[in-house]
Amino acid sequence: MSKGQLQMTIYSTLVGVIGFAGLIYILVTQPAYLHATRDGVPYFSPPVVNPEGGKPLKLESLARHYKGQD
């Protein structure tokens, strides 16, 4: 094995280990920013019913509307 192949093997292994460790860290600790948007709306929340027309609304758009951003 040449010097270049050895360096590339070490580099590839190191990148793989760091990537795998990062994935395990995210799955184990589950940071708070992965649970909700910056508006505080949980990800994968069901739509809410508009009382005026009965149409479903995304909870994210409803939160932005009440914050005055929409």
Briefly summarize what is shown.
51% of the residues lie in helices and 6% in strands. The chain has 70 residues and is mostly helical.
Characterise the protein shown here:
The chain is mostly helical. It has 2 domains: 1-30; 36-70, no CATH class. The chain has helices at 3-29, 59-67; strands at 48-49, 56-57. The chain has a two-stranded antiparallel ribbon. The mean pLDDT is 90.
Helix/strand structural class:
mainly alpha
Count of the domains = 2
Beta content:
5-15%
Largest sheet: 2 strands, antiparallel
Helices and strands in order, then pairings?
Elements: H1 3-29, E1 48-49, E2 56-57, H2 59-67
Antiparallel strand pairs: 1-2
Main features:
mainly alpha; single chain; two-stranded antiparallel sheet; 70 residues; 2 helices; rod-shaped
